[in-house]
Model the fold of this input.
Amino acid sequence: MSDNPHLLPEVKKHYGRITNFVNNEFVESDAERHLDVTNPATNETIAQVPLATAEEVDRVVQAAAEAFEEWRETPPHYRTQPFYRLKVLMEKNYEEIARVLVQEHGKVIDEARGSVRRAIDNIEFACSIPSLMMGETLEDGAAAGIDEEVIRQPVGVFACVAPFNFPAMVPFWFWPAAVACGNTYVVKPSEQVPITQNYIFRLIQEAGFPDGVVNMVNGDKETVTALLTHPLIRGISFVGSTPVGRIIYDTGSTHHKRVQCQAGAKNYVTVMPDANLDACLPNMISSFFGNTGQRCLAGANLVLVGDGANRMVERFVEAARRIRMGYGLDETVQMGPVISHRSRQRILGFIEQGLAQGGKLLLDGRNPKVEGYAEGAFVGPTIFDQVTPDMPIVKEEIFGPVVTILRVKSLAEAIDLVNGSPYGNASSIYTTSGKAARQYRYRVNAGNIGVNLGIAAPMAFFPFGGQKDSFFGDLHGQAKDGINFCTDRKVVITRWV
Amino acid sequence: MGLTMDVYFPELTSFGTLLKFSLALEEAATALYTEAARLAADTPVQQLLEGSSQRHARRGQQLEQLRRERLNEVVLQPISGMLREQYLPVQQVPDSLEQALGGLIDLEHKSSRFFDDAAVVAANVLGGVERVFTRLARDNRALGEQVPRQTG
Done:
């Protein structure tokens, strides 16, 4: 490891054996299978995570189901009280959470801080449940003297299956709203990054939710299958790849659950000839290489419209070349490693394939020199030119810092190209033309559109989800969609005689 | 001596480091004013220096809050054109009140220049922060003018 004196301190060197959390207690798993959790910057093992069996999942779900009736009878404004306490605890421990997150995930500290903030945003949203969960009433709504109203009711036990790329934030897209609405919950963190949630669950414990209301189980595919097929689980939220998302959606819905799957992405960023590059280039760089490209909203394909593309390419490559890589606990580092050596190999495979198919590398990130971190899973910024839309490197989700450049003659051609992708998570346009921007947001089939902004990440009070193969389900995560997902609307028609 | 002048000033590579640098400036200013006040014990300027120390500490808290609450994906982008060396205050522990006051004048001057330049960068990145930085630069100039020029 580097002897950089300005590295922020790691919270711990090793976090031991990760536990599950059931009925407000941390419980050792009786799983026979465990995985090592590795710091991707140093390749050091920093914890072991259990892979829970179906029996353990059953115990956790039973605890959540048992807690449900009492929790749903707790008035909404009382249900929000532990959220207020959790918000304070998260603020107090904000920096430590961010550092743990960097250590197990590899992202840079500011990215980690930003994602903790987004987790807190969702707690704040949940604190508004007494207003947001209100129903609607219409006097004489059914007939004269007969009133009609709709009330919202919680449903039961919900669960989320979280991805590795945002260890703190993603579970918070789902569980605070669900729990504040009166449901109970099981969080299943990614087995690649379980430590952050384990840390946060200590705060959840301190916040004083009643036993069984919020639970956590660690595991892998077997654990997820047990959740998906458990008869007491009423709804599943998932964030991850499209192939897994399909399985989750199919299995969950076959077992009569509500399912929302935020799946993979291959996001196009379109740059018009009139774009203000001076103002926008840093933002574009952040879109493509932020979080080392491991973000479902990351730019992946850069679409250059019309003349002047070469000038843009030169500047883009130069800016990418200057990105400083390293361990994310160094605050001057701009890009960390990818999540694992396995992921690195996968990304390198895509690059090799792109080269074999005739792509030209303008920037080669296959063997970056990262001083002090020779063992880290680093891939440098990589930029391909001379690619065609049918190549896998253009079509498939790489989930790494790899960019392809495509050139088109017109905005219409760019939009056709974007809409030709099976994915539809996000897309951005850089332009100074309001007309072009409007046309883009009107016609592009994606769930999140950025205008002069490369990461169109919805805040907690807006719904978050894609279109096409980037989302399976109907109600998105966060905001009112999240409330609709985890509540039933019951109509009551009343006549007093 | 309670003064810690070992404050870390990062390279200015991103909007996040801009905020980190600004926090470092406040930390250094708080420490240096505190030390100057100690060296000025029982003189007419002691209270003024203590007040300025507290003011920088409050500014640091406000900047920390700003970093926590406003830094998200949308503004995590590289920056260029600001060189760390231009804004580095003297990091030497002062031996005398005169030296401390000289250090404070230098620090307020560099801080005001830093926040003026950071405001230009922030204008492209995050609305509202430009205004905060401009206000801080103005505040630095006012604080700098308050620093006594003579110890006698």
Chain B touches chain A through 23 residues (CB under 8 Å). The radius of gyration of chain B is 15 Å. Residues 15-146 of chain B form a domain with the Ferritin fold (CATH 1.20.1260.10). The first helix of chain B runs from residue 15 to 39.
